[in-house]
């Protein structure tokens, strides 16, 4: 559940083989979603043991992924090493059952919709209790939106469930829906233990510092907030195939220091994202390979439509969007890395390379003269260099994380472009560690930018971003929406026919563009720089929920 937020552009989550080190550039987002580029190796060729050193932007603000502060991508990567993911996303964006946790799951009935889960009898929590139907029931009750004391990142799917019951045994779960929910393979994953949902206090704060109960191939070794690192180590209680790695160390590394950290052997890979500098550095490193695959990862600008923001008027937001040339931004960031043109994305649900993709951005497409005309019509008249209305200057506060050269570059490009239509952009750079919790999550911005990491269930994952719920923010940080969008998303999420569901989502997307909700900039090239001796890891395409923590390792 929930699209994952990544601090602005340059780190991530993913067709074709990656370029060799002598290659002049990366492929753009042309082609179709498909294979990963991970140096695939049979288990017998991967050594037993070793430590994989993984750079992150920040440590988790909450180890409960479903709590409002918990949806950060770096946190998800750590959580996935130790919590049950009931399904595995494959590189081509299909989904399969994770047999470590489930013997089977089936759609037992479609009207009413009924799911039947059979939990693997070997699956145990770290407190010794078996995974059971009660964990599913507790998770549904905490996430269905009925108790507003639970600060949830989204209630999609759970709000459509009528009841969760015990089947023939405690390991048999029967989930009955009151209304149909199409992308059901996105819910109950990661699964959390019943104890975490025991109270709103426990749900919201109980796991803020550390996970209390786990059930995965790894468990927490250390959480060192001062040293800014988390280690996970093999869990001897794990019932599945033994992981190749002894330990994974997630270390906070500033974006500006990634290339040096890889060159010095402090980390084993990094996400190139849209950093030309890091791409150039990586190309020249000995013992480092660049791997690439089409990625469900895109950079965007979120606008704030709350009453407290100068951008509360949808027409003003759309006018500003029309003053931003996303092709120029994409070319500036990616142009030196790509062989072809940098491609901008015109859809909030479907990414380039997927069969459902349609460019619905016409209403907000770049047109400087149209932008000026719209601002004039709205009463924002040019006085000197900046427009004014009712004596108030058109000054937009654009919040970015620092240090982050990519966010900085995007903000400055947008600042200069909007200056040309008479809007002044005040760039406020805030510490990366505070960026989500103190600014994005609480709507403390007029404009802000980061990356969304999409998934194989894009419509339900995005519902919390584009639906407007007066009682809960979910992931709609700019508080923008309409009854029409809510209704279309309800319909799409309840439509079991894939073609009809995609058509409804594209209808919703057109309305989202009209609202000036957020401006997608470009899709990431999906390239990583990684030590050449790392196996079964790299540019994983869609196979990031979870990453293959069991088989990744070193060839020598």
UniProtKB/TrEMBL annotation:
Question: Where does the Solute-binding protein family domain start and stop, copy by copy?
Answer: 109-457
Pfam hit, one:
SBP_bac_5
- Reading the lineage from the top rank, the first entry is Bacteria
SUPFAM superfamilies xref list: Periplasmic binding protein-like II (SSF53850)
- CDD domains, sorted: PBP2_Lpqw (cd08501)
Alphabetized InterPro entries for the sequence: Peptide/Ni-bd (IPR030678), SBP_5 (IPR039424), SBP_5_dom (IPR000914)
Q: Which GO terms describe its molecular function?
A: peptide transmembrane transporter activity
Show the segment(s) annotated as Disordered. Answer: 20-48
GO biological processes? peptide transport
Any Gene Ontology CC annotation: periplasmic space
Q: State what protein this is by name.
A: ABC transporter family substrate-binding protein
Per the UniProt entry, what species is this protein from, by scientific name?
Answer: Lentzea alba
What does the organism's lineage look like at the top? Answer: Bacteria, Bacillati, Actinomycetota, Actinomycetes, Pseudonocardiales
